[in-house]
Write a structure and sequence with these properties.
With 367 residues, the chain is α/β, with parallel strands linked by helices. 44% of the residues lie in helices and 13% in strands. The radius of gyration is 20 Å and the shape is globular. The structure holds coproporphyrinogen III.
């Protein structure tokens, strides 16, 4: 007989038979708004950055090269899982990896980020971005397969950059504070914008499909810089393209997470793009975010990464507040509001995982 249990809203409902494996993990169950034994937790940009073992392994290997070596990808992806006991692994890669595979000449410069040799300005530049298939990113396919074997019941999250965030790097030529060139092209040459965003949606979709076929248990679409737009412009210039990526995975059988920074005004629109889970940054409390996104979506977030640099009592109080506010959502995946900062003490991350698990544990007789 199926067990009765309480979900995140305290409502009793039928539980499905436990099948085991990553599809039955607390993380995937929360994404699907199913009852969980504890609130799952992982950290954006957990793979690398703050870990000494990561810095050691990367000492003489350039970023893009490390993304193309399945042995390194596997080791770096596993490092935070071993160390922190997080509920999910995220593939070590970068949002520009598939764009480089599509023929764009770019590099990832330490301390700066992606730098594009010839920024995209014309229709001919857009044409040069080739569609990609599995063979263009065979190293990702191989790394995911190795990781799925190594991880056992721990789910692996695949990811891609969303069209707007990728387009910004390609048009600006590198990171930008204002996204001025991107917006100038968007407003001034809307047809060219839509051609570029459409092509980047195809690249992102193909990249995610490779990862799903290789065995990832969930995917996250990173639209890190979408918060630079008004809701009206987001709906007109971005939402159709992000929707194309997410809708293209509707039959893939894995939950989809849609995340951006500074998206308080966009949360409702982002929720319409098709993902099961909406990532929220630290600016919007999760109960407020849930009212904007609606009851059909789980939420993910939203500890300010800078809080991890504060004394432990401050961290603990913030974790408690976020778990409390997350109870207003139909389901909650604990995370940061953006990526782990390189200067973060890894011990603090480990303590946060333990605290989230402890504070959110459901009584065993209800599981
Ligand atoms: O958890 C993980 O770290 C998984 C792997 C991962 C990386 N980048 C590795 C990386 C993921 C999920 C990303 C996504 C990514 N890359 C995003 C979306 C998430 C976000 O932070 O908003 C964006 C915008 C990028 C583009 C990018 N790549 C930036 C802004 C940077 C940082 C530049 C710097 O040095 O601070 C990169 C480089 C990068 N990507 C590094 C890592 C580990 C650092 C490179 C290095 O170690 O030399």
């Amino acid at each position: 007989m199926a067990a009765m249990t309480t979900d995140n809203t305290g409502t009793a409902r039928d539980d499905a038979p436990r099948t085991g494996g990553p599809a039955d993990s607390p993380f995937v169950r929360a994404c699907r708004r199913r009852p969980v034994p504890h609130t799952p937790v992982w950290f954006m940009r957990q793979a690398g950055r703050s870990l000494p073992e990561y810095r050691e392994i990367r000492a003489n290997v350039a970023m893009l090269e490390s993304c193309r070596r399945p042995d390194l990808v596997t080791e770096i992806t596993l490092q935070p899982v071993r160390r922190h006991g997080v509920d999910a692994a995220i593939l070590f890669s970068d949002i520009v990896v598939p764009v480089a595979a599509a023929g764009v000449d770019l590099d990832i410069v330490p301390g700066t980020g992606p730098v594009v040799a010839e920024p995209v300005r014309t229709a001919a530049d857009v044409q040069r971005i080739r569609p990609i298939d599995r063979d263009d990113v065979a190293y990702v396919d191989e790394a995911v397969r190795m990781l799925v074997r190594e991880l056992g019941d721990t789910p692996l999250i695949g990811f891609a950059g969303a069209p707007f965030t990728l387009a910004s790097y390609l048009i600006e030529g590198g990171p930008s504070r204002t996204h001025a060139k991107t917006k100038a092209l968007m407003y001034g040459e809307p047809e060219l914008w839509h051609a570029l965003a459409g092509r980047l949606a195809e690249v992102a979709l193909a990249f995610l499909r490779v990862q799903i076929e290789a065995g990832v248990s969930a995917v996250q679409l990173f639209d890190s810089w979408a918060g630079a737009l008004s809701e009206a412009d987001y709906r007109r210039f971005v939402l159709p393209h992000s929707t194309a990526v997410l809708a293209g995975l509707a039959d893939a059988g894995v939950p989809r997470i849609h995340f951006g920074v500074g998206t308080a005004e966009l949360l409702g629109a982002m929720g319409e793009a098709g993902a099961e889970v909406i990532g929220v940054d630290w600016r919007t409390p999760l109960d407020v975010a849930t009212r904007r996104i609606g009851p059909e979506h789980a939420v993910q977030g939203n500890l300010d990464p800078c809080v991890l640099l504060a004394p432990w009592p401050v961290v603990e109080a913030e974790v408690r507040r976020i778990l409390d506010q997350g109870r207003a959502a139909p389901a909650h995946v604990f995370n940061l509001g953006h990526g782990v900062l390189p200067e973060t003490d890894p011990e603090v991350l480990t303590r946060v995982v333990a605290l989230v698990h402890e504070l959110s544990a459901r009584p065993a007789d209800q599981d």
